[in-house]
Amino acid sequence: MKRFFDNFLQQIKMLITRSKALLGRYPRLVRVITFTIGGFFLCILLFVVFVWAGVFGRIPGSEELSNIRHQVATEVYSADSVLLGRYYLQERSTVNSAQIPEQLKHALVATEDVRFYDHNGIDTKSLFRVLIKGILFQRESAGGGSTLTQQLAKNLYPRRAYFLFSMPINKVKEMIIAKRLERIYSKDEILVLYLNTVPFGDNVYGIKTAAERFFSVSVDQLTLDQSAVLIGMLKATHRYNPRLFPERAKQRRDVVLSQMTKYNFIAAEESDSLQVKPIELKYKRRSHNAGLAPYFRAYIKSELLKWCQENKKEDGTPYNMYTDGLKIYTTIDSRLQQYAEQAMRMQLTQLQERFSKQIDKSALESVAKNKVKQLPQYRRMKEEGISEKEIIEAIRKPSLKKIFTWDGVQEVEISTYDSLVHHLNFLQAGLLVMDPANGELKAWVGGIDHEFFQYDHVRESTKRQVGSTFKPIVYAAAIEKGVGPCDYISGRKTSYTNMEGWTPENSKDDTYDQKYSMEGGLAGSVNTVSVKLLERTGISNTISIAGKMGIRSDLPAVPSLALGTASISMIEMVGAYGVFANHGTYTAPVYLASITDGKGKVLERFNPDLKPTQAISQETSDMMLHMLKRVVNEGTGARLRSTYGLTNDIAGKTGTTQANVDGWFMAITPKLVIGCWVGADDPSIRFRTTAMGQGAATALPVVAKFLQHVNKNEEFLNVSKARFASLSPELLDKLDCDLSRSDRNLIQRIFNKKKGVKATQYKESKKRNDP
Fold it and tell me: What percent of the chain has pLDDT over 90?
């Protein structure tokens, strides 16, 4: 501060000396002018002292400036260290000095503050220009006097309004802060702080985020011309935005390159060669809805906010998820996540066209009319007392809106009502991938587009009827109860008086005169057999086993439970199927690994409870896994082999709910458990035919395409080539029976026995002749 006042007084003395020489012949006039000027500068000096003393608001001290904290986005990373996305108010991320190329620093100094390395925060040579233009004439664009250090002060401590004195007060504050910054930080540290805090437009703050947004590169990969574009934006972030005004941005870039030549940072030849190049943007807009795993990031957000409130920083204040630059490490694998999203997109784009042709338009209109009253616009107008007729007219009036299409987001003239109808028309999907050994979630797809459809079809609160995918739980409970896998159960129809005469039916008429082993009933997904197994096991016993397998949803104690009439979330179903893959033990799904601060200090490690609970016996789980493999090899999941050519070891189960509302497929491989659901958000909108709407036609292909992606990646050979352990001879013997028998087969067996044909020979002949 002393040096500032010394410079200030020196300028006054010089001015007085020159005035005396010029007006030596007029001593009285000299005295008047001298006292006037002296009084003027004395007022300025007093003004500066008042600002310094905090009369116009507190000025940060050295201790605070030594621990500068500016808003930095929290970043979410996959298990393989890929950035999934950010939580932020201002999109900002920081870099250190080593990551910033010298040419970027040179461009900044040459353009914004060429005497940066010569001054101590205040450029006294430009001070008087600022005083005249900025203070006397109140011009925001005075320029020339604000050094990079002063601009940094403005970035760190935004200006406040002080009526007519806003400009002088803010300018003096920035000069005082700049002087203090120069005493604390080196010149290079100031440059890094500046580049990490400066705004670049489009809600982008800091050079790291700007490089990613405008050129899709890291800071250390910026070329000289790209650096010049970004530095050129600093003069006016909107006016020189290369996305909005490419020609204007190019002109400004060329000015930066010329400045670098003028001050000998680059040769004239290099500058000339770069100035003829067009600006080549690789603009990548980031939002909370974009990037990998947006539904997953939205899901963990509330948990992270809670963690921030419950955990304190060193100063005793809670962490702020949007400004404290935390790093969240998850269990998601970015490659598997990308494969899952690609598989969903490939299947749903193909399926949507067929689905749209089958939608009952009257049902669609009926759903839309009911949904209208839930719209924010409707509710707001209703609260304002506007009549129903006027509300409907407003909702039916076309305007420019963005809508989702599988060809990309489109901006069209459309009414709010027609936009609602348009978006109700789309099929949705949920896909979840888990490592059964430790419960780590590896991929999470909650829907087709998070910007337009934020309803997540994976999380616990989102539940749909699960159809036949519940049957393996019924079968497992039956085995646990003592029902033998080769105890044959009739497929005949039965009416249930406790369900008002409800009579479950099968998809094929020729199943009613058959008797099925467990393996046969499960492979063919025979409804009547599943209901009878549930009765033999006991509904309460089955519900108890389901609870041990991780099903937390309320299950109705009715016979139709066997057919999956219960509504259960995807995450619960994947956890339950993990029991079959994990030798009968249940491991709860986990998704967070650790949280660190911006410097890499670990704040919390999420160590899951690796003491899984024994839900069913290993013997039961091994037999169930064997049966579910039969479903894929010969049953309702056979398309994995015949259509998609998958040779992986796979067990699984399809599921389709009544009226083709929900299509499911649950798959188990030695290393992954995969669950998929496909359907419309509203159950009234559905496929008309089972051939189109069944899980084998809607959800199974998503899983198949996901596994095809995995199989092509040699990094996942340990997943694609993994094999289930062989079933023990004792368990093979327990399962050694025909899939089904008819009355005709039973008569033939008796006849063969009378002829002396051994039972084993009969079985071999049956295996050869049965389809």
Answer: 63
Measured in residues, the chain has a length of: 771
> What is the C-alpha separation between 472 and 577, in angstroms, rounded?
9
Contact 274, 238 (CB under 8 A): no
| CA torsion, ordered 431, 289, 359, 373, to nearest 10 deg | 120
Token pair for 763: 């079985």
Condensed to tens digits (0 to 9), the pLDDT of residues 1-18 reads: 556 556 666 766 666 666
Neighbours of 753 (CB within 10 A): 12
pTM of the model: 0.78
- pLDDT tens by residue, 65-95: 777 767 788 999 999 999 999 898 777 788 8
List Cβ neighbours of 610 (8 Å cut-off, separation of 6 or more). Answer: 438, 587
Q: Assess contact for 373 and 392: CB atoms under 8 A.
A: no
CA distances (Å), 232 to each of 76, 204, 342, 599, 691, in order?
Answer: 31, 15, 38, 30, 60
The backbone torsions φ and ψ at residue 259, rounded to the nearest 5 degrees and listed phi first, read -60, -40
User: Hey, is 585 helix, strand or coil?
Assistant: strand
Which distant-in-sequence residues (6+ apart) come within 8 Å of 368 by Cβ? 417, 420, 421, 424
In angstroms, rounded to a whole number, what is the distance separating the alpha carbons of residues 329 and 67?
A: 26
Three-state secondary-structure class, residue 48: helix
Q: How confident is the model at residue 673, as a pLDDT?
A: 98
Backbone φ and ψ for 312, nearest 5 degrees, come out as: -110, 150
> DSSP label at 502?
B
In angstroms, the CA 279 to CA 354 distance is 43
Cα–Cα nearest to 479, from 363, 584, 348, 338? 584
- CA distances to 241, 256, 271, 578, 684 from 235, rounded to whole Å, are 10, 11, 20, 57, 56
Strands 204-205 and 91-92: parallel
460-486 pLDDT tens trace = 989 999 999 999 999 999 999 999 999
- Count of C-beta atoms within a 10 Å radius of residue 608: 17
Tell me how far apart the alpha carbons of residues 662 and 573 are, in angstroms, rounded to a whole number. Answer: 14
